[in-house]
Amino acid sequence: MQPSERDAAAPYRAELARLERLLAQQEQDVSAEDLESIKLEIATVYRALERDLAQLGALRERVKELAARWKELERRAAEGAKSQWRSRRSDHLNASSFVEKAWNALARGDHREAEGALRRAIELVPDDNQASTLLGWSLILQGRLDEELSRMSEIAGEATSRSVMLFNETFAATNEREGSEIARQVVKALLEAGIKVFYVTHLYALAEHFYRQGSDGALFLRAERGENGKRTYRIVPGGPLPTSFGEDIFRRLGGWPENRGQVSNIG
Question: pTM (2 decimals)?
């Protein structure tokens, strides 16, 4: 219920104006009887006004109490929001530490430890895409492809046409034929759904398949390599190659045992 916007004093102003007119008439022709009657009317208006003012004063105090209660609730809500923000921030920081721990574990080849750290990160921040992607990678490295595909399905289910999906050697732990075919179907479905895909891979069959399609929206990049094998550490446009130039690394390390000590100047 909204308070009325009418002028609460209007009836009193109208009554006082009427009494003023009666008194003006008495100034022209005084009557003791009429003056007595006017006095009683003025007293009646005064008592009514006093009563209403007292009631309005009490209501004003109640309004003040409501305003004070509202301010207290607003303060609690602000403190609660700040507390929730601090909690979420703490969760994100803790999740980041678990993701970093997982990276270190993956670098050491301890895939089980990486899995545990990533599951803790996801418990803290369920929508952490980096943790979800790395968890899938750690599962593949443990040979648990079924579980990784299940997680991939969950992630894809949350994606929209405005999403960007990042893949880093996903499905590379299977053999190239199977990994390329699985990845091809996954990427094809994502592209058809309007999702942008960034894919880092050594799966030549996968990259070559999409390269041969010649899609206008596709950009293929690879690490730049000079003719003598020197690395520039730049990423440049270029189609996929069926080699990762492992021979360059082999030569840098000295080649065959009889050539050790004759380290190449490559890169």
Answer: 0.45
Dist CA 176 CA 178 (whole Å): 6
> What is residue 263's predicted lDDT score, i.e. its pLDDT?
45
Residue 165, φ and ψ in degrees, nearest 5: -105, 125
Q: Kindly give, in sequence order, each residue whose CB lies less than 8 Å from that of residue 203, ignoring residues fewer than 6 positions away.
A: 171, 172, 176, 179, 180, 183
- Which positions ≥6 away from 164 have C-beta within 8 Å? 195, 196, 197, 198
pLDDT computed for residue 266 by the predictor:
45
Domain extent at residue 200: 159-213
pLDDT tens per residue across span 54-100: 888 888 888 888 888 888 888 777 777 666 656 666 677 788 888 88
Are residues 169 and 208 located together in one domain of the fold? yes
How close are the terminal C-alpha atoms of the chain, in Å?
A: 80
Boundary (domain end) residue, out of 135, 154, 173: 154
Indicate whether 195 and 229 sit together in one domain: no
